[in-house]
Amino acid sequence: MKNRVITISREFGSGGRTIGKAVAEQLGIPCYDNEILQEIARESGFEQSYIQETGEYAPGGFLAAAFSHPASGPSNADYLWEMQYKLIGQLAQKDPCVIVGRCADYILRDKADCLRVFIHADLSYRAKRIVEVYGEREKSPEQRLKDKDKRRAAYHRFYTDMKWGHAQNYDLTLNSGTLGIDKCVEIIKSLY
User: Fold this and answer.
1) In angstroms, what is the C-alpha Rg of the chain?
2) What is the secondary structure of 156-177 as a DSSP string?
3) Partners of 100 in the beta sheet?
4) What residues form DSSP beta bridges with 31?
């Protein structure tokens, strides 16, 4: 029998990480988020900050795609994607768990008994939340949200060829701004 895994994809500032950790804690199972980055850093020799940055951008961007040469081989981003893909598969095989982000919804689509969740909220809720929770003040919080979501969507689409946040790609989508963090946790737990 396959293990039960919950993947949490989320818009920046929607509380997806908080929800994932709370679900895991209440179910008594591990939650993997930054732990995945730490393990990839350990195995690859790259700094964790570099891995995190690389995981938020589609490799090379528009210009690199336009001028790429197939003979140049895989990029660092491709190498890190392969490590991430393998590690997430191993975590899902090992034990039931919650995995936040990292395209785990796609990676585990055929490998685990997996509940794929997407957490979203309107822009004003998320802007208010990143100021309160993260102390975000460096520039317009709304612009930071848009930039971060745009990068996540591009990365997800590059490696999965799926539209990030598109309801048909998930088993459940929840609006944390309307439902609240605690209700989202309760709903996800009830489906475990």
Assistant:
1) 17
2) HHHHH-S-TT-GGGSSEEEEHH
3) 8
4) 98
Amino acid at 111: K
Distance (Å, whole) CA 136 – CA 37 = 23
Query: How many Å apart are CA 10 and CA 189, to the nearest integer?
Result: 17
Distance of alpha carbon 83 from alpha carbon 16, whole angstroms: 23
Q: pLDDT tens digit string along 145-186? A: 999 899 989 989 998 999 999 999 999 999 999 999 999 999
Q: Amino acid identity of 114?
A: C
**SS3 per-residue string spanning 25-37:** HHHCCCEECHHHH
Amino acid 68: pLDDT: 43
Q: Is 81 exposed, middle or buried (0-12, 13-18, 19+ CB in 10 A)?
A: buried
- Give domain 4-190's CATH superfamily: P-loop containing nucleotide triphosphate hydrolases (3.40.50.300)
> What is the rounded CA–CA span in Å between residue 112 and residue 92?
7
Contact 113, 3 (CB under 8 A): yes
DSSP structural state of residue 111: T
